Structure formats: C-alpha cells, structure tokens
Fold this protein.
Amino acid sequence: MFVVIFRATVGEMDDYVQTAATLREMALRDFGCLEFCAVAEGDQEIALSYWPDLASITAWKTQTDHLAAQNQVLKRGHKRWYSSYHVQVARIERAYSSPKAVQ
C-alpha cells in the first residue's frame, strides 16, 4: 500500500473546496483510492490518500479532470489557492490499529 501526502499553505479557497470534493469522490470511486482524509489548521492543510499500488496513483495523477485542476493550481494556485505545496509518495511497510473497544 502507498500513501500520497499533500501539504500546503492555503490562501483563498473559493471554488477550490468544491473542486477538491469532486476530485476526491472520483479518486475513491473510479481510481482505486482506498481512503482519503484531509485536515486544516489556520493556513496549513494536509491530505493523505491511500492507494493499493503506484499504477493507481499514476492513473489518478494523469486523469483529465485532475490534470485540469493541477493546471488551475499552476495558473491560479500560487496566487489564490496555495502559496506553497509539497507532495510525497511513500510505501507503507506496516500498518496496525487498536481493536474496537468492547462495550
């Protein structure tokens, strides 16, 4: 399993929120994304998306609507959506969680 870590310093979020929600749903429904979560505090945002393999990430990265959104970021993002962003792709070697609490 892989995780894509997206960190950004955000600016104006006008139409970004709707665009991001639409793309997130598409990634989960059509491209094999296993889980997606994002949090923001102040002007900092971090999003984690989990994928079964690199091929799924590549297919998502090159999807037409996703590319269009990336182009918006390149054209407008540095001025409005993000003042900076950073993307990391990592392989998850091990994962575990606590069992459900017994009630």
Notes: The mean pLDDT is 83. Strands lie at 2-10, 35-41, 44-51, 82-91. Residues 15-42+57-91 form one domain.
